[in-house]
Amino acid sequence: MKPFDISTHGGRIASARKARKLTQTELAKLVGIGQSSIALLESNSTKATHHAFELAEALGVSLEWLLHGEAHETATTSTGADLPPPDSKLDSFAKRLVYRREQCGLTQAQLASRSGLSQATIGNLETSRNKGTKRILELARALHITPEWLLHGGNLQQAKGDALRQDFGVPSAEQRQEQLVKRLVGMAVDPAISESSNAPTVSPPPITTMLPIISWLDPALTTPRKTYLSHEREGYVRSPFKQSQSAFWMRVPTDVMAPEYLENDLILVDPELTPQNADDIVIHDANGRPEFGRLRQAFDDKYIEIMNPHYPVRMQRLEEGSKVIGVVNGMVRRPRSRD
Fold first, then answer.
1. Which residues contact 152 (CB under 8 A, 6 or more apart)?
2. Which of 241, 246, 245, 328 has its CA nearest to residue 290?
3. Rounded to two decimals, what is the model's pTM?
4. How many other C-beta atoms lie within 10 A of the C-beta of residue 299?
5. Which domains are delineated in the chain?
6. Which of 77, 56, 57 is nearest to 12 (CA)?
7. 56, 85, 187, 222: most buried, per Cβ within 10 A?
8. pLDDT tens-digit profile of 40-85?
9. pLDDT in tens, 93-104
10. What pairing do the DSSP bridges indicate for beta strands 290-298 and 280-284?
């Protein structure tokens, strides 16, 4: 049988599928798409980025390899021939550029095309005739590496991981810690909760900072900007935050967003805010099920991320038909009772 061309994303998918002894139908079921979609991917008729997370997980390969086709660096250790050189050997911009280009399987012409530079410029950079370029960002993006690594060297694996996180809008551990601190600083504790009657005749609260608590199964969520008028509200909580008049509270139902959000925390959902990458959002998925997670934008697709590290599948692509209910604009937590 003719070997697969793993320089293409389709060849990498087919090669990894065969290595796992999966049929196209079996892989399609694991990913949650049709067999014809797998066939199109393997023939390079469509791009793998639409289901990149799911494909990488199902095939047991790294996302970076699936998307960019780098050689696996866990190769033979007996000779050490396939191992990357120590970072100390990549002691110049030219050496790092050559090594990274070859690692990505690119010719000078291909790198030139991807980065917008001329092939002559790439050649001059690799021979140190040119000491640098003003288009370092484009060059780093084409090589899926950080510009800092190209310029100054350092830990290659960390630089590759940082670049991949940037591609998918995923923050580093330091950035996540900083975000957590900011969220905790803005967190209100022990709000005064008024459990009001659910009777349809109850009018909206006269105080604008008193907002209703809405159930995750409330039919009013289908019209987010009118959800706050729901007759099935569970009560009211005073808001210490700034929000639109359409905002409302929801109780966190599970630990999917722990440790930042714990079960029974109240999140302030504002339907009038425009969701941005890395915002925490509440959605209705394509089947009308409510979900809570962090928005991630990658390439032309959007994903919702579960923050709890103990969940095996933490990225879910937002399918066509999914609807954002609102952006989480704040959170309150009541101290746990002590027995």
1. none
2. 328
3. 0.46
4. 12
5. 9-68 (1.10.260.40), 90-168 (1.10.260.40), 185-333 (2.10.109.10)
6. 56
7. 56
8. 888 877 665 556 777 887 888 877 777 777 644 433 333 333 445 6
9. 999 999 988 888
10. antiparallel
